[in-house]
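This section describes the prediction task in plain terms. A model, or a person checking by hand, is given the sequence of a single protein chain and must write out its three-dimensional structure as a string of tokens. No templates, partner chains or ligands are provided. The sample shown here is typical of the held-out split.
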Amino acid sequence: MNRKRRSKICCLSGILLLILLLAGVQRVSAMTTRTELYQNTPSDGGRSGGKEKQFLANSYAGEYQIDFSYGFEGNYQDGNHVPIRVTITNESAVEFEGYFVFQIKNAAESIYRRNSGEGILSKLFLGVKRSGDGRNSLFTYRFPIYIPANGTVTKTFSAGLLVENTSFCVLCLENSQRDTVYSREETISSEGFFQSKVEVCVVEEETNYGQQLNGVTLNDGIYEVEAASVRAEELVGLAESYSPDVLILLEQSKEELDETLQKEIDLWQAEGGLLITFSGNETFAESQRSAFKEAPVDFLKNILDEETTSRLLAKRNTNYQKYYTISDLLENTRIRNRPNTVLYGGLILVYLVLAGPGLYFFLKKTGKRQYLWGAICACSAVFVMLISLFGQSTRLKAPVLTYVREIWQYDTYQKDYINFCAQAPYNASYELYLDPSYDLVTYNRMDYMSNSTAQPETEDAEYEKTEISFGEQKNRAEISNQAAFALNEFGMQRMETLDEGEGLKGTFHFWDQKISGTVENKTGYDLESCVIAVPGYCALIGDIKNGETITLDGIEADSVREFGNWSAAEDLPEIEKNYLDGVIYNHMPNRSDNCLFFGKLAGNDDTFQLDSGYEAYGISYYYQEVSVDMKEAGVVYCPYAQEYSGWDGGNTVSFEMGPNSGGISEEETEVTYYLNGVFENNNIWCLYGMYAKGVMQPDSEGIYDPAFWPYAMTALEDKIQAAETGGGGKRGTILSLAFEKARTEDGTKIRNFNGTIELYNFQTGTYDEISDWEIDFASDPALEAQYVNADNQIRVRYRLSEEEKGEEYHENYGYYEAPNLIVKAKEIPPEQYLENLLAEEPNADTEN
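The expected answer:
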């Protein structure tokens, strides 16, 4: 009888526990934030219905007006955040004090699936939801605002990445009681975001030339120009929009603009924008301006050659890929120590055996089966205590943050970026308090595109909610209605002006794979494990304390294509390896003027979360793009000439964000290298502009006369095209060639090429093998005439050895890393090169 009573009590207790558990789940499921689309807490305690709330909003609609714009002139390149600008006009005779609210809704597959079994399980178990998963999300941005009677206020901020092709947003005004007094709908479109277009903006008083350039195609129709004309005062918001690609200052120089606009342009250029101005001496500037006005389409096409265009788009792609790299790092950063699955698996297995059949058979054998339930309870208590003890080091009771901080120095400016992920070990709401000196934006990764429009729905409890309230002392973010351990990504950034002498100062020289120079650290931070990255190579400099100046004396640089293969990184923690691997992937330079210096900030700084008090795990780095001198006595040193190549008959000089020699997968592979590229700035327009600004005088004659260029821009299209695709005559004399194996761990799937290298002999029409993969033309100029043609091109044939052809690796994979091509060359001065190139063309005097 007692046994039956105990069984009934246990069953009733289990049923009661299940009812309480489900009730708690339902309560959390119904939990919402104070603000939803079109809905805020009414003053009557919630008795008013939806119609009354809409009536309240409409009753005030005539007294306010909100003008809405996003991006720059409606365009934006970087999908991670979209600059928003609203101008709010109070058309009434009564001042307004309350809140401006911006809400954006991303509709995707719900993680809760209403109250289905799967929805309940997502609340009970951690099932981590990545920020890239399909999630229904509602983001609310709330700003305190004051508008005088008949006054106007402008508010600028950023909204997160759009998940869909067209996203729905709502603009609201709330009074001090948070009643909605005005609201209207808007759409933000990312249509054409991935199209191969080049955005051009002409700054002019008359909106004429921008219209003429709109729709122009570049590079044989591969890219289309989307052009617009604006006035100088409309450049506000330029830097944050990462748009346009090209800015043409038609009537003014940058120095003639307002200081604030100059700063906007500086930051926009630092993000990869191309600025075209007509400066230099007055005669030259007016000549160039006239050339543009006479033939704007031809002018633009000559400037936006294939290399320049691909460089712009590559930089845009880098900004986009950088976000994904950091997101992956944030989402995979280890928080504390992960639970030992072997240990807990063993405990569970022992418990299942002991608490079930083990105790039963033991007590039955000893004749004490009446103690079974008590023994099971005692066993459960013991195992609960064991698990609690073992779980002390991995237990999480509060939200945790993972972050990556990057400080980038741009000349006299410094931009501080913080990306962080927040996740909580429970599904209740939690709050963050964030530093208001940073611009704050929420992120939602664009892992798919859709043609649908996210429509608003009132009181939709399935939507995850993020509400940000902006304030002077701190910003507050409330996150609610989410599954346990759901990841939420935020971005913060601020710009600071550096005082004279502040920041990182350095002079660098690279020759024969060695870095020399000096570095002065006045950044305000102690830097650790500093690295200087030049095209295809990295050199470990070491630690530099704040205020310290160090001298670099021939530091050896390693050939690096993947950071994971760099021996200097072997002892770094795994999180730093993963991060720096992404840095190399996204930022590895391939020109001497965009080399990269970076170092880790000593210690971790999570003060951006103010008094949130959550555990934070992350890394911080300081960056600056630097120019590295690679010349000695007029001789250019280029250890990355594989960049200027056309594989398998290709005819182009492309721009990629990291040096890439390509892969050899055939038993014989032929490559053409365009060695004029090693001198960089190969566009004739760049050459002429450099020379004209440096040495040309107003009274110069012939090709040095500024009046010649309007003619040259249209008369020399063929030669310009030839120069841009690797021809155009000799830019200099090639002195030596050397092929060097890349630093790779010859693993299962990737190996270095180790066969035969042959050069094409233009005199005999045959390929000749070069021993030791090196050839010196300086000691025997006759060799250069044989192997280098009139346009400074060489043709190379890579042949696998018979041993390599017979290896199992070749049969299974057959991919080999091509070697680096190291070139030394004597450069022809730009003015002499132009004279040679244009010698057969009529000069300005005879033409006029």
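For orientation: The chain has five domains: 12-189, 197-321, 341-390, 499-629, 632-847.
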